[in-house]
Amino acid sequence: MRFSLHDHFMFDISLKLLLRRLGMLFGLYMLLRVVFYLLNYSTFAEAGFGTTLLAFLHGLRFDVAAIFAVNSLFILLSLFPVGNTLNPTYQRALKWIFILSNLPFIALALVDVEFFKFIGRRSSNEIFAITDDIIEQFGQLVTYYWYLILGFAVLIYALAKVYPKTGQQASKATQPNVWLRGVRLILVAGFIVLGIRGGLQLKPLRPSHAFVLEPAALGHLTLNSPFTFIKGIGQTKLEEKRYFTSDDALLNAMEFAPGAYAAQDGPIKKDNVVILILESFAAEYVGALNHGQGYTPFLDSLATEGILFRNAFANGRKSIEALPSILAGVPSLMLEPFITSPYQANNVYGLGTLLQQQNYKTAMFHGAANGSMGFNDFSRRAGVQQYFGMDEYPEQLRKNDFDGQWGIFDEPYLQYVSKQLTEFEKPFMATIFTLSSHQPYTIPDKYKNTFPKGELEIHESIGYADYALKEFFQSAAKQPWYHNTLFIITADHTQKSINPAYQNELGHYRVPLLLFHPARRLPRINPDKVAQHADIPATVVDYLNLPTDKLLPFGHSLLDDNFGGHAIFFNGNAYVLVQPNVVAELKANDAVSFYTFSDLAPSPTTEPKAAQKLKALLQYFNNGMVNNRLYFD
């Protein structure tokens, strides 16, 4: 085969054009990483300059994989072996393919700059789970995040303007022979596959490979959103685990007895149960958890009359992950929320189901649009008989009480709930989910400048929501059902942070969890024990003296002072088990790290019992989900 200087010249033009165009994308990805770092600086603040720089450099490996995956068609067409690929018409078509291929992924990367604050990890295909909510709230999201829209428009315009073009001489030149171009295409295709795979290692590149630096949070900086999104497509099936070969060994490692509550001493209490889930009430905002420095004076006062757990954790980072934990004891241990996962139809015995069997009326209240985050469907699966959304709110009041964005303001909505509960047949269990402290943190005009502005935009709305909670309790206290009710108050997840004490792996999950009964003295319990959302079903069962064998092993009754407590969550890269004396972290390669609970410093000693417990809980979760066998027969 003859290889002429002319052929070499043409090969050089095509390859240089392609490299310049891809190089422009690498620069864009790095710019987006810089923006992500600056707007989420608190997450990475504890990392030194040198380590942060390494995270940026390590990110190039993931950029190669994402850029090659997104642009594989464009790359192959740029070096197509047949036809004149340097023809102006062909080049214009290539430009459109280039822009349209990259446009959605640039948008995703920009969205993640802010969405990361809510979920604590790069987006995966889980974003499909909230598509309906995004469409419904599109107007207010555009208004609130206008700067992302503007940034997106600027980036796409710049991409189109600086897109490298062929020179006039090159566009008129003759293409090299087909054989040479064919060999070139095969070689380039091989490099594309290698780049997407991440190298020659045994396993293809995956998100867990980004978490090689300390602090581990830098892994989120190393990653890019297009990569995590692409990797999430089709990766919904959990991997079954085989750490333990027998049920007895598994149960012993989990410290769980399935029949612990199967037979109870004494009659069922028949008290009402009200579970209040406060939107975005991070522990950081609660004065009673921060030496009086906070924005929740009423919740602080209630804490002096009840039991406020000082080391309480959410089992996830999103609202959609909170409800399964709180109502069914199902923690969020996979990338996709249980409510939208392939396992959403699995058998679940929710708290509502258990209480219905004892003739309780069960209901859920959420002032947002009906169907929001699938709460109505899941609550029904958890045994909740009646769902009250915005559609059920009195139409004549809706116009004045609508916040213009998500739903009904907390104060009028909680007053409505109080009246509804008074009309319920007793006993009842009600779950109430607030919303005013959700972005964009809207409060009624009449309360503007009433509550402390604080240092973050959410702080004022936290003050308003706390005030609405106070008004609810004042109204409820006048009702006949109030003095026969156990109140459980918690938050769905954390939110924006300004306190360095909470800007760490555990701080991202710390929420208040309060038990309060206006007329009964609760047992003496250590408020420093570790608590979590998944403990709530077992706590209600224990308090009511309810006989059941349908509790999951992830949670324990908070009334059991013989158990020091634990919390479990998945941070997108590793599974974390928090216990009073040690934090265990299990990574995808089955390596376990240990940290001290107080300061998250690496533990000088291993804790094999904690490692076994974490592995047992993960095996139980994964295998139970895959085989739809979460409950022992």
Task: Tell me about the largest β-sheet.
Answer: 7 strands, mixed
What average pLDDT do the residues reach? 90
CA distance, first residue to last residue: 72 Å
Q: Which regions contain 5 or more consecutive residues with pLDDT less than 50?
A: 1-11
Report the helical percentage.
40-55%
State the shape.
globular
- Strand sequence of the main sheet, in spatial order? 2-8-7-1-6-4-5
User: Based on helices, strands and strand pairing, what is the structural class?
Assistant: alpha/beta
Radius of gyration: 27 Å
What is the helix tally? Answer: 22
Q: Tell me the strand percentage band.
A: 5-15%
Counting DSSP E segments of at least 2 residues, the number of strands comes to: 13
Write a short abstract of this structure.
The chain has 633 residues and is an alpha/beta fold. It has helices spanning 5-39, 41-44, 49-70, 72-78, 88-119, 131-136, 138-144, 146-162, 168-172, 178-197, 218-222, 225-232, 247-254, 297-303, 319-328, 351-356, 375-381, 395-401, 410-423, 458-476, 536-544, 608-626, and strands spanning 272-278, 307-308, 311-313, 361-366, 386-388, 428-433, 485-491, 513-516, 530-532, 567-570, 574-578, 583-587, 592-595. Helices cover 43% and strands 9% of the residues.
